[in-house]
Amino acid sequence: MTPVRVTARGAERWARGHPWIYRSDVQEDRAPAGLVPVHDPRGRFIGQALHSPASEIRLRLLERSERPVDAAWWRERFAAAVARRVGIDATAYRLVHAEADALPSLIVDRYDRWLVVQLLSAGLETMRDTVVDALDELCRPGGILLRNDAAVRRREGLDQAVTLARGEVPRAVEVREGGVRYLAAPWDGQKTGAFLDQRPNRLLAGALARPGGRALDCFAYHGSFALHLAGRAATVLALDSSPEALERGAANAALNGLGNIEWREGDAFEALRAFARQRERFDTIVLDPPAFAKHRAAVAGALRGYHEINLRAMRALAPGGTLLTASCSFHVRLPEFLAMLTEAAADSGRRIYLRQILGQGEDHPEVLTIPETSYLKAAVIQAE
Ligand SMILES: C[S@@+](CC[C@H](N)C(=O)[O-])C[C@H]1O[C@@H](n2cnc3c(N)ncnc32)[C@H](O)[C@@H]1O
């Protein structure tokens, strides 16, 4: 294998716990996409990496030693990821969270007996068969689906496709999350079929819902929060702009024998404005919008959007009401998110308590030296 030589600054990034080396820190690179040995400026071996010749992120550290990265190696890394998730009270969760599980650019989500996989770098793409075989041998799933339709693949010069790699995978998979069951859509749902990162926050929302009260799930998707809220609230309004997601939401309500959720298609910004005009009040509100900031330059505009929906939600809270509010924009970091909430609270004219700061579930581990592993932040706040 042709080695890739990196600068001292590139080598230093690995030494300090970050697995990426950028194009600007590569000195000599004549290797094709795939697994490569990496050398420092003095020609010393420093590790094996996934190599993406067309990407800004040129190298992703896979193995620090010269041990062969073979089928046994992959099975071992997968077994470690599986062991980290023992005890999760759900049948749908993330099994491999890429860099955070020392498996850069690889996502594996479990939906009951089925696995949904995303290969997100050109280097990893060359190892597709080995990866799929190792997952198959270790997990023995009913099927493995490759959801390689993620936009980030374009930056790697890769195509976009959804392909069945092993066995069979149903269009809808029934999964359980705590005491709630729901249908995930691995083939054509958003992300890999469900938003698994909010799992513990949904359980919490269910516990926080005011018994007999009125709840609002804004940006509801297929109602994952609404289903938990509906166990305690008298009524839940679930609002989303996607008719397909809402249709599955209604099926999910039926699956749980819940008749107290109203599914409403619409724009959440407009709906929140209308609630303010009509002086509508809710005891429990969830705000789980899509990532408003897809890149750094979009942060200022995103913060204006977050401010608007949070201000309106704060105003729509009944006295003593609770708001669980989230942002999944990687570029909006926790301090900026809390500053935005502070501004919205000041503008709301109400006394707003910060009760809890939340993050992503433990199946989406966050590594301190790899900020990119952490993107979801949320807070529970309460009106006086
Ligand atoms: C992060 S997801 C919500 C996930 C959901 N809360 C869950 O736990 O499964 C964001 C959702 O917002 C919806 N959405 C995007 N823009 C919207 C808008 N302007 N108004 C209402 N819904 C919107 C998307 O269809 C998507 O379902």
Question: How does the SSE layout of this entry go?
Answer:
Elements: E1 4-6, H1 8-15, E2 20-22, E3 26-28, E4 34-39, E5 45-51, E6 57-63, H2 71-84, E7 92-97, E8 106-111, E9 114-119, H3 122-125, H4 128-139, E10 143-148, E11 161-167, E12 173-177, E13 180-184, H5 199-208, E14 214-218, H6 224-229, E15 235-240, H7 243-255, E16 261-265, H8 268-277, E17 282-287, H9 299-315, E18 317-327, H10 334-348, E19 352-358, E20 377-383
Parallel strand pairs: 1-4, 9-10, 14-15, 14-17, 15-16, 17-18
Antiparallel strand pairs: 1-3, 2-6, 4-5, 5-6, 7-8, 8-9, 10-11, 12-13, 18-20, 19-20
Bound molecules: S-adenosylmethionine.
Describe this entry's structure for a reader:
- This protein is of the alpha/beta class and 384 residues long.
- The protein is built from ten helices and 20 strands.
- It has a seven-stranded mixed β-sheet, sandwiched between helices.
- α8 (268-277) packs parallel to α9 and α9 crosses α10 (334-348).
- The N and C termini lie far apart (64 Å).
- It binds S-adenosylmethionine (SAM).
- Residues 190, 195, 198, 219-221, 224-225, 240-242, 245, 267-269, 288-290, 328 line the site of S-adenosylmethionine.
